[in-house]
């Protein structure tokens, strides 16, 4: 997927694989894929053999290029992460052991293993949802029956936690539902 912003402002989503974004003298807001999407990409990468050029150039990763502008990467909310992970487990696409292994591998590499960022005379950074917005989304999930009270309380506790901590809790809770 190719995303171009040229003398303008734009927003879009980062696809889990084959993603390139170019921002030139503008502003771009990109929504990162959920952990569930990233895990499925990682699973596919594990089964695929890369050529020598791809290994040399690192083009198995996406590219985010910013020149004279700003690119902001937005993480999904905890509710989005929880819902996507729960759907992944419910689909039976992964065994619990495979999920734990892939989640651990994903967290060990971090997002920077998934895409390369190059910035010239600009800024590229990551943004998270504010606590109030996270709480609102989690409460809405609880009110609609997507989250039980016990899971709601545990997700509230990891709102401001590091990514590795919240990811581990989300993975464990998604397996608890299955």
Number of strands: 8
Helix content: 40-55%
What value does the Rg take, in angstroms?
17 Å
Order of helices and strands: EEEEHHEEHHEEHHH
Q: Biggest sheet, open or closed, and with what strands and sense?
A: 4 strands, parallel
Q: Enumerate how many helices there are, as a single number.
A: 7
Low-confidence stretches: none
Whole-number mean pLDDT: 84
Give me some keywords for this one.
178 residues; alpha/beta; single chain; four-stranded parallel β-sheet; 47% helix
Structure description:
There is one protein chain. The protein has helices spanning 35-47, 52-57, 78-91, 96-109, 131-143, 149-157, 163-177; strands at residues 2-6, 9-13, 20-24, 27-31, 62-67, 70-74, 115-120, 123-127. The strands form two sheets. A four-stranded parallel β-sheet has the order 1-3-5-7, with no helix packed on it. The protein has seven helices and eight strands, in the order ββββααββααββααα. The model has no long low-confidence stretch (mean pLDDT 84).
Reconstruct the topology from this structure:
Layout: E1 2-6, E2 9-13, E3 20-24, E4 27-31, H1 35-47, H2 52-57, E5 62-67, E6 70-74, H3 78-91, H4 96-109, E7 115-120, E8 123-127, H5 131-143, H6 149-157, H7 163-177
Parallel strand pairs: 1-3, 2-4, 3-5, 4-6, 5-7, 6-8
Quick description:
The protein is of the alpha/beta class and 178 residues long. 47% of the residues lie in helices and 24% in strands.
């Amino acid at each position: 997927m190719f995303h171009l912003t040229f003398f303008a402002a734009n927003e879009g989503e980062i696809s889990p694989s084959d993603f390139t974004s170019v921002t030139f003298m503008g502003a771009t807001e990109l929504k990162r894929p959920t952990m569930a999407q990233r895990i499925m990409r990682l699973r596919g990468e594990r089964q695929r053999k890369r050529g020598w050029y791809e290994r040399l150039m690192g083009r198995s990763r996406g590219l985010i290029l910013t020149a004279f502008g700003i690119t902001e990467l937005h993480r999904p909310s905890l509710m989005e992460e929880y819902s996507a992970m729960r759907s992944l487990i419910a689909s039976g696409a992964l065994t619990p052991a495979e999920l734990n292994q892939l989640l651990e591998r994903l967290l060990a590499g971090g997002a920077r293993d998934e895409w390369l960022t190059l910035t010239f005379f600009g800024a590229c950074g990551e943004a998270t949802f504010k606590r109030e917005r996270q709480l609102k989304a989690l409460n809405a999930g609880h009110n609609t029956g997507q989250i039980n009270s016990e899971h709601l309380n545990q997700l509230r506790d990891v709102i401001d936690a590091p990514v590795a901590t919240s990811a581990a809790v989300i993975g464990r809770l998604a397996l608890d539902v299955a």
